[in-house]
Amino acid sequence: xxxxxxxxxxxxxxxxxxxxxxxxxxxxxxxxxxxxxxxxxxxxxxxxxxxxxxxxxxxxxxxxxxxxxxxxxxxxxxxxxxxxxxxxxxxxxxxxxxxxxxxxxxxxxxxxxxxxxxxxxxxxxxxxxxxxxxxxxxxxxxxxxxxxxxxxxxxxxxxxxxxxxxxxxxxxxxxxxxxxxx
Length: 182
Known about the structure:
The protein is of the alpha+beta class. It has helices spanning 2-16, 29-36, 125-128, 133-150, 165-179, and strands at residues 24-28, 49-54, 67-74, 82-85, 97-108, 154-156. It has 2 domains: 2-115 and 153-179; 117-152. Helix content is 33%, strand content 21%.
């Protein structure tokens, strides 16, 4: 019975989430560390998360997936690389480039690994000024726990969910040429 309930939840998640080729994701740092350790990934990295692009190549329907192949993204230039301009759709960073190279891994898509960004107290620094020192210390501990939890979460890029048609075509060319996938 429990397995049936989990299957129903996974199907509901698949129906709500788009795992299409070229969909944009935010993947927690701990997941990247696990998936890319054998490829020399920095296991001492203390970042929270990194961008990912789905290179699955199919639209998810009724089929359940335990993993989805994704390219790892970083702002550090690499070669060869597929480049996405303004991954986070931020008008202040309209020329910012995120590079996706030869690092890719099978990212787990599990109920407890999918999350969404919640509004945090740190999003409103002006509110913190009115808090007591004791309350600020408590909020700091809570924020540290939230930051650690984010390192284990996969979530859609809320600011920009999908590459456009031209970008998707270029991604297919890149993955075919350099990674032998598409």
